[in-house]
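User:
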Amino acid sequence: MKELRTLVPDFDLVVVDDGSTDATVSIARAAGARVVRLPFNLGVGGAVRAGLRWAEQRGYDRAVVVDADGQHDAHGVPALIDALDAGADLAIGSRFAPGADPYRVGAVRASGMRLLRVVVRIVSGLRLTDVTSGFRAFDRPVLELLAREYPAEYLADTVEALLMVAYAGFRIDEVPVAMRPRAGGRPSSRSLPLAANYLRLLIAILSAGYRHTRQRKDTE
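Assistant: Predicted structure:
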């Protein structure tokens, strides 16, 4: 939070407390952040949806999602905002775009991420380098869409949300950003069976792509 306060001092800082049992709320408030408190843990997707809904209901024109585990480097926030200024409706901070600092992932996770990139390209035509990045900036129309519909399931909160925005006809851009090793918290990829989650997500992506194709044909 201190980094965000220093680098983007004009931004309102909101912390979504996802049913924590530690000192998250008091620390966030002591740092001058507003806090959205959830009564129990909903996971990343539910927390992001709660934050976006909070922003949408209060009339914010834009929002930037930054993970609380220290991975997202706040130096990338201005680049995301610049992408919105240039016409993007959704800007993604990519770990793998040309110009990004090297970022290492495990073999299983890297294979899954490559597969998801290919599938996303096939079903949507989007050629993106980092479809699972949660470091994103939203312009008002996308904010309104995802405040109600943001997926809550693991991995769906990034990839399925991306496809929802694409199928709605919005422009999606990537910008290279630096990401750091996790500074705190427990990574979801270690507490969940990755293979099962990738399979579930692939089925959901293909189903959504099929529905979108049918809908498009029905309107032609």
